[in-house]
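Schema walkthrough. Field components (list of strings):
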Amino acid sequence: AGDSSAGQQKSAACMACHGADGKAAAPIYPNLAGQNEAYLGLALHAYKTGARSGGQAEVMKAFVAGLSDEDIDDLAAYYAGLKP
Amino acid sequence: AGDSSAGQQKSAACMACHGADGKAAAPIYPNLAGQNEAYLGLALHAYKTGARSGGQAEVMKAFVAGLSDEDIDDLAAYYAGLKP
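Field assembly_structure (string):
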């Protein structure tokens, strides 16, 4: 599993849409706080590989492109650990 | 906005993966309880139109194909209203 404190360090770019506490800044974006860690990792990998595409996935692809697998695991651990 | 009690009636097919209380039955599926209503509606419409594809979206497309716009609004209201 990822390292949630490392994930917090890496979450600066995510905050604009997903909020500083994992509660989305706008209702068309998903809350991430308390979401399943495995699901978050799977979704981020799907954006990275392009398996998820269309709609808001196109936005996410840009954010995820530069993330390593370790970054993805850490971010998934960080958001899963936040209180919903 | 949708009618959450109508949404509850329509959620039988969703429970297998998303849980009776909106907490996913398996960690690779997303929790829906307390998710943003607008995001849920947007995601369901994207599955219905095929705008979201690939990965687990292919599973969701099958479940969403038969839903009307009103069904989608009601389900989004139902899950958004559940306690995360």
